[in-house]
Amino acid sequence: TSIHIEEYEIEARDTKLGPEEITRDIPNVGEDALKDLDERGIIHIGAEVRSGDILVGKVTPKGETELTAEERLLRAIFGEKAREVRDTSLKVPHGEYGIVVDVKVFTRENCDELSPGVNMVVRCYIAQKRKISVGDKMAGRHGNKGVVSRILPSEDMPFLPDGTPLDIVLNPLGVPSRMNIGQVLEVHLGYAAAALGFKVMTPVFDGAHESDIRQLLIDAEKREDGKSVLYDGRTGQPFDNLVTVGYMYFLKLHHLVDDKIHARSTGPYSLVTQQPLGGKAQFGGQRFGEMEVWA
């Protein structure tokens, strides 16, 4: 499990029609959507938010051109009333969720460094706990990256003769084609070092040699080739062949499937080509490339 903190920011600027205002009083928004905002219109720390929830309420003055015909008629009858405003609040983006852990407010009065034309900046920090899931990316130290394809309960994982279940099972086809032998040496050296109870620091290319690792495995009373009998956790039967086991450093990378997943039916189009936009940020479509066309 890892904790991720996302930062969202909104600026209140001076516009041609007057200054934007950060407020709780937003047109055409029900009290239910404002329940987590304080009197300034900023969300309070500890609030649970989902996609589409308002983090900071903001209104922008609306120009004469944006008025509908009905509004112009009413204006002509009743004279100039209060300037119309529109809702430009900061909302949680599509597919995000979490708990607000911090809110920072920067204003001109506090002598904060703000860019010209900006009166106020509000930053919200949202934290979420993410368990590792199918499709998340992991990598070792030797360019041996991959995605999680299956997560099993520990009783279904292969186990050693003494009953210890394995944590991660890697596909052996990833080793010969990529020729990153460092991961094989790391597994064997880690196996021996864990059994003998010491830590190893070794450079990649000019470090421990194969003969040293073989000797350490013998000292640790393991097989010299670093392999072991494994039993299938689902049936309890041993596998037909011996399997290399050991200790390897593995890291969860910041490419999580929850951030990448994306679906769309209809949405924005490019004005020039009349084709859907690309990418998750633009709520775009999936590209149907040359290879997909001929498939």
Q: What is the total number of structural domains?
A: 2
Write the H/E string, N to C: EEEEEEHEEEEEEHHEEEHH
Can you identify the CATH superfamily of the largest domain?
RNA polymerase II, Rpb2 subunit, wall domain
The helix count comes to: 5
Helix content: 10-25%
Secondary structure category: alpha+beta
Strand content: 15-25%
Q: Based on the coordinates given, report the CATH architecture of the largest domain.
A: Beta Barrel
Radius of gyration: 29 Å
Coarse shape: elongated
Largest sheet, strands/sense/barrel: 5 strands, antiparallel
Mean pLDDT: 87
Report the CATH topology name of the largest domain: OB fold (Dihydrolipoamide Acetyltransferase, E2P)
Explain what this protein looks like in three dimensions:
This protein has 295 residues and is α+β, with helices and mostly antiparallel strands. It has two domains: 2-130, Beta Barrel (OB fold (Dihydrolipoamide Acetyltransferase, E2P)), CATH 2.40.50; 137-252, DNA-directed RNA polymerase, subunit 2, domain 6 (Dna-directed Rna Polymerase Ii 140kd Polypeptide, Chain: B, Domain 6). 15% of the residues lie in helices and 23% in strands. It has five helices and 15 strands. The strands form five sheets. A five-stranded antiparallel beta sheet has the order 2-1-10-9-4, with no helix packed on it. A three-stranded antiparallel beta sheet has the order 3-6-7, with no helix packed on it. The protein has a three-stranded antiparallel beta sheet with strand order 12-11-15, with no helix packed on it. The longest helix is centred in the middle third of the chain and has 15 residues, at 182-196. The mean pLDDT is 87.
